[in-house]
Amino acid sequence: MPLHVEIIAAEQPILTSDADVVVAMTVSGQISVLPQHAPLLTLLAPGELRLGRGANEVLLALAGGYLEIRDDHVTILADAAERAEDIDVSRAERARDRASARLRESRSTIDVARASSALARATSRLKAADHVRTRGVTRAR
Ligand code: ATP
Q1: What percent of the chain has pLDDT above 70?
Q2: Could you give the CA distance from residue 81 to residue 12 in angstroms, rounded to a whole number?
Q3: Distance from the alpha carbon of residue 80 to the mean position of ligand 1, in angstroms
Q4: Could you say which DSSP state residue 11 is in?
Q5: DSSP output for 88-101
Q6: pLDDT in tens, 104-141
């Protein structure tokens, strides 16, 4: 029995798919989830999310959020999520450049935290877009 994966961002369903494996970036490192995984609730870091199904792989960029595993159901509540092929690369490059400039100039810890997370989101989007270009990841239904 495959995993049943549901990704929701800003209260909108982004993707529902079966998967043999889910690879996600949590705040304490990468996890690979296979069927019959123990129940888990964990915090996601900005990064890539991979769903593997047979020979197909679907790649998304997640801005962070929560991942819950229960009875082969994987539910992801993301702050933002984009399929890699839908990412606007020049928008992400602009966001990266803005955040990098703010990090160079910032005077308060609030600025640093905001700019660091904006930079992490932009970097994760650029990585996912680059991976889908170079490896031709397939689109999920
Ligand atoms: P920006 O400064 O470009 O808005 P951001 O990191 O502040 O970037 P978010 O707040 O994470 O953006 O996302 C706002 C919305 O825009 C979300 O729906 C997200 O999926 C979408 N989004 C953000 N950046 C991109 C991108 N480069 N390509 C496609 N969608 C994006």
Answers
A1: 96
A2: 10
A3: 7
A4: T
A5: -HHHHHHHHHHHHH
A6: 987 788 789 999 999 999 999 999 999 988 876 555 44
Structural domains for the chain = 1-141 (2.60.15.10)
Task: Write down the pTM of the prediction.
Answer: 0.92
- What is the DSSP pairing of strand 21-26 with strand 12-19? unpaired
Q: How far is CA 109 from CA 9, 43, 87, 116, 129, in A?
A: 27, 22, 29, 10, 30
Q: What is the pLDDT of residues 51-106, one digit of tens each?
A: 999 999 999 999 999 999 999 999 999 999 999 999 999 999 999 999 999 999 87
Strand partners, 83: 60
Count Cα atoms within 13 angstroms, Cβ side, for 89. Answer: 10
Q: Please report the pLDDT score of residue 141 as a whole number.
A: 46
Sorted by sequence, the CB contacts under 8 Å of residue 57 that are 6+ apart come out as 50, 51, 135, 137, 138
**Region at 110 (left for phi over 0; alpha for psi -120 to 50; beta for the rest):** alpha
Rounded to the nearest angstrom, the distance between the alpha carbon of 42 and the centre of ligand 1 is 23
97 lines ligand 1 (CB under 6 A): no
